[in-house]
Amino acid sequence: MSNHLGLDPDRVGSLDEHGHRKNIIPAEVRGKFRRARDWTQGILILFFLILPWIKIGGHQALLLDIPRREFAIFGLKLYAHDAPLIFFVLAILTIGLAFVTAVWGRVWCGWACPQTVFIDGVFRRIEQFVEGGYLQRRKMASTPITPQIFVKRSIKWFLFFVVSSAIAHSFAAYFVGADRITEMMMGPPSENWTYFVLVSSFTAAILFDFGWFREQFCIIMCPYGRFQGLLMDSTSMAVLYDEKRGEPRKGMTAPGQTAGDCVSCRRCVEVCPTSIDIRKGLQMECIACTACADACDEIMEKVKKPKGLIRYSNLRGGTWKLKKPRALLYGTLLFASVLGLGISLTGRSSLDVVILRGKEGLYQQVNDDKGNSVVVNHLRLHIRNQTSEGVSFLISAKTEDGKTLEVATAQNPVQMKPSEDQTLHIFVKFPPSVLDNKGEQRANLTFSSMAGGGFSIVKPLRLLGPSRNNE
Fold first, then answer.
1. How many Cα atoms occupy the beta-carbon half-sphere of 300 within 13 Å?
2. Residue 254 carries which DSSP code?
3. I need a labelling partner for 157 at 20 to 30 A (CA). Which of 112, 151, 202, 318 fits?
4. Which residues is 408 bridged to in the sheet?
């Protein structure tokens, strides 16, 4: 059954009476929230588009190079073997979103989600620039196509394509690298067919989503709106209609009843990007963009009534609070993740060293220049410089009881460039007397920085040689 506004209270606002999708063209709105969102969206758009082209410590500010298993996060360089660190980073992002939702509700959806930021901050502004205000666009949507409408829509979709391409290239730069993307853009597609197809696919997907699909992604595909109920409680912030103050609305009063402050202007519905009626209460489709709050405040000001009939509040009518079980739980987990990341970073060495034995055998026994018997252990060292600076270090070896062992290698000290990966072959030489009766001895390889106050990394090593048990 429809209400007095012609709205079916049981129907999704983005669908018509036949279940078909409506072309939602929200009205423009002014107000304090709109101004705050304009600034927020501008900063986030610049941040997203410029970030991959910024370098910190010689590395891209944010790079997720999955094929090479290298990750750069604001000066921090991580690799595949840094799985605990990557886990902590992902945990901080996930738990951080849960914490923000528990306290401030769906502020991410309405203020920071790329879907909302780019559609509201870029694509709808292009529509307004090319096709005019919302009334003109609504009239155009219901009018048979004419040459003038065709030209305007062609210009609009061309600009959509240009913006989508820019977003797709910046998005790809996060995974491929800004320098490589620039090189590919300067060359013909035939030299990089894989990435050309990928970026073209990104462009098409963004153009489809931001240009046409829009609110349907939030309603149909995004899981966040569905599990937000698990993260929010009665003290979580949301955009809410004050039913006690607003009801009964104008035109719905019974004889002898005093009307509430709601004048049934439908302005809150007109400005909603998902076409919901906020007066029905908290709904999954609401992205907490606060457009309805600004629109209602504008009407209240005109009819000389207090603002805040629709406002950012919680179900108890109060403001946000941190002292509640859900927020404390998420806050504790978030703090633990940040602490774990900090401790892991503190214990992270400048060099990642993996020691493997040579393929020709466990050991060799040869004579030195003086004819004395010497045992040789051939080792392969996979070394990665985990710093953003070049390093120079000396490799030395000692037994656990302090006996110095000879280390022979092609270069010692070793020079490594920032983030360089090398494989070194070294030969540890020692007399058989160093070994115990089983032909073994525990020792340490030390990697000492040649720079003053640098690192000193010690790696355990098991020396092998001939056993004396059978002598």
1. 20
2. P
3. 112
4. 427
